[in-house]
UniProtKB/TrEMBL annotation, chains A, B:
Pathway: Pyrimidine metabolism; UMP biosynthesis via de novo pathway; UMP from orotate: step 2/2. It holds the Pfam family OMPdecase. Keywords: Decarboxylase, Lyase, Pyrimidine biosynthesis. The keyword Lyase applies. PANTHER family: OROTIDINE 5'-PHOSPHATE DECARBOXYLASE. The lineage of its organism: Bacteria, Pseudomonadati, Bacteroidota, Sphingobacteriia, Sphingobacteriales. InterPro entries: Aldolase_TIM, OMPdecase_type-2, OMPdeCOase_dom, RibuloseP-bd_barrel. It comes from Sphingobacterium suaedae. GO terms for molecular function: orotidine-5'-phosphate decarboxylase activity. It catalyses: orotidine 5'-phosphate + H(+) = UMP + CO2. This is Orotidine-5'-phosphate decarboxylase. Coiled coil: none annotated. NCBIfam families: pyrF_sub2. Residues 16-256 form the Orotidine 5'-phosphate decarboxylase domain. It comes from the Bacteria. The gene is pyrF.
Length: 277, 277
């Protein structure tokens, strides 16, 4: 999906919501457990209940990989169930030397090889240029590079600061921006970082940012928009637990939809405030 | 596998060789392509030809993941074929927030959940403490954390330097060392970094280091030992392409063995020089 298509979807749906599909078999409604593939049954119902409200889905690969072959089958079916009108993001945080990153690009982008054709993959930047550039080679495919993450350990290394006062995450933004463009690179910036977005926008004013951490992790949508929105929206705000685990009963999909509606409505107001719609 | 067991294996085999199983279907001997699972056939033959000469095997997960479900099946069989007397390392370079890293720990360490029970997993440190500590919870399991990698892009971020002259990889060594112990943490240090090992050993004198980059990538075993060996050996030196692709013919396993023998013999001399055997 190109940047222009993504923006078109955002305007049409009046939403920049990404729904996280971190589906844990221990948290899904018990009545699904007799299904042949409970994780896929759950995901399919969540997708069907929310696809008009969000512009992206983001399965975290760990939640599939932990079930080995069976988990990989669930992932394949889940990817295939994501509508083509939504950006499909494999949240895998991969990163390796060049020839190995080529293999990861096949794993997540090339359906003819792996059975998976995601639009985007999250990438850990620690190994540098050749760990990122293999994901920037095809139009409509995206590398979403970790910059400033939402977790408690995020600042252990990300605010390591050089003698000019530049923090590691800022240097990552600056360097990685120079390897790709706003058409193939996004950055992960945690919603919990509030004013940190101002620093991020100094280095990446025009990039889309993937923003986890709203909801369960405590980030505020209003703050994210105040500090992070740009003229092309420039934000994909992810919510996982607040939506997919809104209920553990037979009404889980309807309750997920209700939670997605609440976020979509807040987002619509923000998009109007910014005169994007 | 505990550190004491690993050192026992090193002394018994007079080797600290790790064989990389980055098995590319486009590089294996053509006569294997008619097998039901050519990648596994290749790996099994390589393992049987080298298991008395090395102390570890390291499949790089990208080379399996790129074939989706089928690749995961090959990986499972490959892991099961690694003898228990060798350290089995999943070279996956994972790293995510705490609850997700828990899932990755299940994926690679917990056979009852995923079908895989590797001894060790490589980890990218960018996301900090909660991305590493979930892998330090079980005796005999190891987190092998990226410090100073062998690839061309390795220095894009790893030598980002703070106002006290400390480089990022040194700070990673210092911080991560404080989270675990020499019984559950190793570091990745590329063989191409030569005297960089002196800096590494300032921060991690007693840890085992996993050292890729000897052979195809140009690193020297003699240099690695000169600057990196400690009283408990402290090195696992990986070779992949030089061993597994020594021949593309029906003699591939014998030729792989010959290359492994050469490295084992060099390693035996180094272990004797250091009075470890």
């Amino acid at each position: 999906m190109t940047k222009a298509e993504l923006l078109r979807q955002i305007k049409a749906k009046r939403s920049f919501l990404c729904v996280g599909l971190d589906t844990d078999i221990n948290k899904i409604p018990p009545h699904l457990l007799d299904d042949e593939d409970p994780i896929f049954s759950f995901n399919k119902a969540i997708i069907e209940a929310t696809e008009d409200l969000c512009v992206a889905y983001k399965p975290n690969i760990a939640f599939y990989e932990c079930y080995g072959v069976k988990g990989w089958q669930s992932l394949q079916k889940t990817w295939a169930a994501i509508p083509k009108s939504c950006l499909s993001i494999a949240d895998a945080k991969r990163g390796d030397i060049g020839n190995t990153s080529d293999m990861y690009a096949k794993a997540f982008f090339d359906e003819s090889v792996s059975g998976l054709g995601f639009d985007a993959l999250t990438i850990a930047p620690y190994m540098g240029n050749d760990s990122v550039t293999p994901f920037l080679q095809q139009e409509g495919k995206w590398a979403i590079v970790l910059a400033l993450t939402s977790n408690v350990g995020g600042l252990d290394f990300q605010n390591f600061t050089n003698r000019d006062g530049v923090q590691l995450f800022e240097y990552v933004l600056e360097k990685v921006s120079s390897w790709g463009s706003t058409e193939n690179t996004m950055f992960v910036v945690g919603a919990t970082r509030g004013e940190g977005f101002l620093n991020v926008r100094k280095y990446a004013p025009d990039h889309f940012l993937l923003v986890p951490g709203v909801g369960a992790q405590g980030g505020s949508l209003a703050d994210v928009c105040r500090y992070g929105m740009n003229a092309s929206c420039g934000l994909l705000v992810n919510s996982t637990r607040g939506i997919i685990y809104a209920s553990n009963g037979r009404d889980f999909a309807e309750r997920a939809r209700e939670e997605a509606v609440k976020l979509q409505q807040e987002m619509e107001i923000e998009l109007e405030k910014a005169a994007i719609i």
